Amino acid sequence: MTSAISCSNLYKNYGSKKVLQGVNLEVPTGTIFALLGTNGAGKTTLIRTLLGLIPKTSGDIHVLGEEPYQIGPQLRQRIGYVSEEQGLYGWMTVSGLVKFCKALYERWDDALVDKYLDRFQLDPNSKVKTLSKGQTVKLALLLALAPQPELLILDEPMNGLDPLAQYEFMQIVLKDFNLEGRTIFFSTHILADVQNTAHQAAILHDGKIQAVGPVDEICKKVAKIKVKKGAELRSLEAVPLNQDPAEAYLLIPTESLAEVAAVSEEVSPQVSLEEAFFFYCMRGKNND
What we know:
This protein is of the alpha/beta class and about 290 residues long. Helices cover about 30% and strands about 30% of the residues.
């Protein structure tokens, strides 16, 4: 399977600050791929680098087979993008903004626009600045989908939306976009979105990819154990889940289960995505 996105040893520095540190990533064409990370992990920097909005410091990037920073506008014709802060022109009307954006693209689906204006109950004559947060996000999604892009990139667009609006957003993306064989790459820290929708995921922390692959495989690489009362674990890469010495639960690499058999009272050989995320982001902090 070909890759819609490919990064090899990607670095991005802002002066002495290293934001991306050797990122290696492959996003297969036609998949729903989630980029997970805490605030400040480097998700937005990675996405802006993929879009060619900022230059890389070093490494290789290919998006839809092209180097994004060199290709520029030609490549962006093939990519739909929705960010957390949409940056839409508030003084325009909805219909005026649609016309403005349409003029920027060689391909534009007017029927899709009409469909979603009706479904989202967006008044074409309303000023963009009068729209609610949910309506603004839906308008941004409509504008991203109208050019029928091969790749849709979403940078935490659902932040601030209520659960119903989040669900509707994801259903639209899944049913009306990915089912046509297109690729979705989205960043989020709402893990329920990933568990229920993504084919693959990557956990980015401190500018590095800590884990990547099918969601189930990421979860299988981490185990949860309950330590016997009074027992101690030494020289083990472990992350505590609680602070109760009477019932101490730890997250450990699944490959280390044999090493802890003597001190384990309970073992869960596969954890939830939330627990796996916690492990990869906290690993090593307790042993510094």
